[in-house]
Amino acid sequence: MDFLQLEQLITIAGAVLATAGLGGVAWLAVSEMRLRAARRSRLAAAGAAPAAPAAPNAVIGAQVMTTIRRLGQQSAVRDPAKLSLLRTQLMQAGYLNREAPVVFLGVKAVAMAVATAAVLLLLPMLMKGEGGIGGVLLAATFTAAALLGPEQVLKARRQTREREYAEGFPDLLDLLVASVEAGLSLDAAVTRVTDELDRRYPNLTIHLRMLVLELRAGRSRKDAWSALADRLGIDDARSLATMLRQAEEMGTSLGETLSVFSQDMRAKRMLRAEEKALALSAKLTVPLILFIFPCLLGALMLPAAARLMQVFGKG
Predict the structure, then answer these.
(1) CA 109 to chain centre
(2) Is-contact 113 21, C-beta < 8 A?
């Protein structure tokens, strides 16, 4: 089999796969139209009033979201073990909707489909040698974006939220200590602290409001604080939930316990700041060598080099 036959086989395979993909999309569209028609017929049979026609953009957006949800549900059915872990990660990243895992899996499936279609379209050009290294890099970029893009976006969002939670937790504890020592109960203190931290740590206050609602709904204190620690995903929150559970079981003073824990959190925060300050010199070494030192060397040596060239040029 020579190179031309191999190229033809790859082109035919790409065309078949692309046709299959388009057929799958068309099948999903037809199934959705049938489902909507059956739903309208049932509503009409039940005597319901017909809904007002939606805008074209809204209809297209709803169809896209429906397709993404269906793809995500198929992925979730294939691997249900990872669904709970993914839901926890999405909650830590700030996606609190119950359908967030399904939508995330659907987005990953759509990204893989788009990357596959893009690579198949680039494949004939690459086999002919027209794209060169640029075409290979473009195909690799599509593949990497589809495989790693959603995970990296989720990871970056989680890290950003965790930094905010870690920075705001000592302030939360200080305000809790002040409120409890002023005579408020722990539940009332959490409500008061939530209002105070709203402008400085808006993402943290979302979880605190959920904690307040759970406590008002009758959930036990230890379960509500444990759920808060799971949503935040930081060690300080888990330590606080454990400390509150032990204080409730042993009957110790809540104000003194929170005061000691707050001092510990302040000490840890100061240690983290000192660690970052001490690591700054090591982190500045590489930029100093690569960027600042060559500029400084050039600024010092260029006048002398120009003077030497002028002297030797006259000689």
Answers:
(1) 17
(2) yes
Name 93's Cβ contacts closer than 8 Å, sequence gap at least 6.
Answer: 154, 157, 158, 161
Structure tokens given for 95: 């996606």
HSE, side-chain direction, 13 A CA sphere, residue 294 = 5
Cα 222 from Cα 291, distance rounded (Å)? 53
**Helical pair 186-196 and 202-216, crossing angle rounded to 10 deg:** 150
Q: Give the 3-state secondary structure of residue 95.
A: coil
Which one, of 143, 149, 101, lies nearest residue 122 by Cα?
143
What whole-number distance in Å separates Cα of residue 256 and Cα of residue 181? 9
> Angle, to 10 degrees, between the axis of helix 221-232 and the axis of helix 235-250?
170
Q: Say if CB 248 and CB 222 are below 8 A apart.
A: yes
Instruction: Answer yes or no: are the C-beta atoms of 112 and 146 closer than 8 Å.
Output: yes
Q: Write the pLDDT tens digit of every residue in 88-146.
A: 888 888 888 887 888 888 788 888 888 888 777 777 776 666 656 776 777 788 788 88
